[in-house]
Amino acid sequence: MSINSYRDLKVWQFSMDLVEQIYCITENFPKHEVYQLSSQMQRAAVSIPSNIAEGHARESTKEFVRYLSITLGSLAELETQVMLAQRRAYIDKEKLIFTLSQTDEIGRMLRGLQKSLKTKLGTRY
């Protein structure tokens, strides 16, 4: 299967699923968190598939690799926020484990894609 669009990338598709998961989780946060942790988690989650899409659209492999690096940063930010939400008892341990398993899988996919693109560029990493 050829990749004609960022929408063809499994990592983008899985990231979109993660965004939906985060929106579902944050719906139940306390009202005082609407403009705080809830909003930060939603923005971090949305930035993951958004950066994959933007990087792919740049039509430069070097730029795409750079955007994947930014995406990994957003993923780490979201993981931290999810763990904080669990510490604050906004989400239960089960949701934490499920969400972190999603972020782990997306992280592996992003690093694999990065490695493949860097090989294509012939760069050391």
Automatic annotation (TrEMBL):
Pfam families, per the entry: 23S_rRNA_IVP (PF05635)
Spans traversing the lipid bilayer: none
InterPro entries membership: 23S_rRNA-intervening_sequence, 23S_rRNA_IVS_sf
Name the record gives this protein: Four helix bundle protein
Phylogenetic lineage: Bacteria, Bacillati, Cyanobacteriota, Cyanophyceae, Nostocales
